[in-house]
Please model this.
Amino acid sequence: MAMKSAWITLIGRPSVGKSTLVNCLCGRKISIVAPSPQTTRSTVRGILTEERGQLVFADTPGYHISDKKLNRYLKTATEAALEECELVLYIIDATRSAGQEEREIAGLLAPLAEKLVVAINKNDLPEASVPAAETAAAEAFPGRPIFTISAETGEGTEALLNTLFELSPEGELLYPEEFYTDQDPEFRVTEIIREQVIGRLRQELPHAVYVAVEDMESDGKGEKLWIRAVIYVERESQKGIVVGKGGSGIAAIRKASQAEIARLFPYRIYLDLRVKSDPKWRNRDQLLKRMTGN
Ligand SMILES: Nc1nc2c(ncn2[C@@H]2O[C@H](COP(=O)(O)OP(=O)(O)OP(=O)(O)O)[C@@H](O)[C@H]2O)c(=O)[nH]1
Model:
C-alpha cells in the first residue's frame, strides 16, 4: 500500500478543542512542534506517523472576530494557509451555539469544500447539542464527511482518523523521521538520560539506574521545553558516584542529555536533573512498566 501524507489545517473557534484533539490523535501528551517550513503556514501542533503515512496537523494563525484590521490580516493569512494544505479539519464545539463567527468561518471554507472534513467536538458533555450542529454543518457543506467526536474521551476519533488518511494523497513523509515519534516522548527522554548515565558509570553502577521524567512542559509556542527528571539509584552511596566531584558528573550528564534531547525535539531544552536513591524501585510496578516502555 502506498504511503499517504497530508498537511492538515485545523480551524475552529478558540477553545474548541484543537490541542486536545491533536494530542488525542497523535497519542501523546505533548505535540512535537516543528518550525514552519513556509511563512504563511503557521505552527505545527502535532505530527502523526504510522505505517500508512504521515499527517501533519497545523494551526491557522487564528480566526477570531476582533478588531477590524487584525481580523483582515488574520483572514488573509488564514486563506493562504488553507489554500496550501491538503485537508482542512473544521472543528465545531457542540456545546456552543453557532454564532456570527461560525458563519464567517463557513463562508471562508466554502471555496475549499473539497478538502473539508468536519468534526463536531465535546459530545461527551451533557450540554452538547449534536443534532443541531450536524444539521448546520450538513447544510453548509453538503456531501462532506462529518464526525461527532469527543477529543477528551477519544470517542469517534478513530473513524475520523481513518477518513483523514483515506482522503490524504499518496506522498512521502513531509517531516523526517526524527521529527515524529509514535513512542511516548517521555520514554525517549528517559532513554537518552539513562544512556548517558550508563555510558559514564557502567563500571560503578551495573543495572542500578532508573530514570523518571516527572514533568515535561512546553511554552505553547514551540520554542521552549522544560523537562524535570530524576535519576534513581538503589543505594544512598551510589548517589555520590552519579553526582561526581563538585557536581561535575551530573553536570556532564545533564549537558550531554540536553544536547541529545535537543536533536529530538526542535525546542530550546531546559533540563532539570536530580539524583535520588530508592532501594525499592525495582519492585515498583509502575516504574518497571515504564522502564520496559509498556
Ligand atoms: N468535555 C470535553 N472537553 C473538551 C473536549 N475537547 C476539548 N475540551 C476542553 O476544552 C478546553 C479547550 O481545549 P483546547 O484543546 O485547549 O482548545 P483549543 O482549540 O486548542 O484552544 P485555543 O488554542 O485556545 O484555540 C480544554 O479545557 C479542554 O480540556 C471534549 O471533547 N470534551
